[in-house]
Design goal:
The chain is mainly alpha-helical and about 140 residues long. Helix content is about 55%, strand content about 0%.
Length: about 140
């Protein structure tokens, strides 16, 4: 299995996706389990001792032997990469279809043609003359 850091998406954007340190992974998960352990206290309940034990274990391992957390850290990183590849396209699709598409349909219903795509049989050319004229052609030599 190839590394997510070597994925075409990560390379095409010019940035390398890096996994966080094992120590920070352990501290974050210790904090998460501490919140789970103490959450019932807000309603007057008893703390969850099992979650407190897991939080203490994560914290101890994070500071004593963080290398033991490497497999869990790698698994968590891979779960995050899978979620990234699933959730990002879904959210972008929802954003497009729930914002851009309705605006386009309303604009079209009101007769607007912002891109001037409507065919005009009487037109001799679709060239748009600029007033004032644009920059001189010699300034456009190295566009990319």
């Amino acid at each position: 299995m190839s590394s997510p850091q070597g994925s075409p998406e990560a390379q095409s954007h010019g940035r390398k996706v890096e996994m966080g340190s094992d120590r920070s992974f352990g501290v974050v998960f210790a904090a998460v389990f501490a919140v789970v352990a103490l959450w019932p206290l807000k309603d007057g309940g008893e703390p969850r001792l099992w979650a407190g034990g897991v939080a203490a274990l994560f914290l101890a391992v994070a500071f004593v032997r963080p290398a033991l957390l490497k497999p869990l850290n790698r698994l968590w990183f891979l779960v995050g990469m899978v979620l990234h590849h699933v959730v990002t396209p879904l959210m972008m699709g929802l954003l497009f279809f729930l914002t851009v598409t309705p605006v386009a349909l309303v604009m079209r219903a009101r007769g607007h043609d912002l891109l001037r795509l409507r065919r005009d049989p009487a037109a001799t050319s679709y060239w748009i003359h600029r007033q004032p004229p644009g920059p001189p052609p010699e300034t456009m030599r190295r566009q990319f």
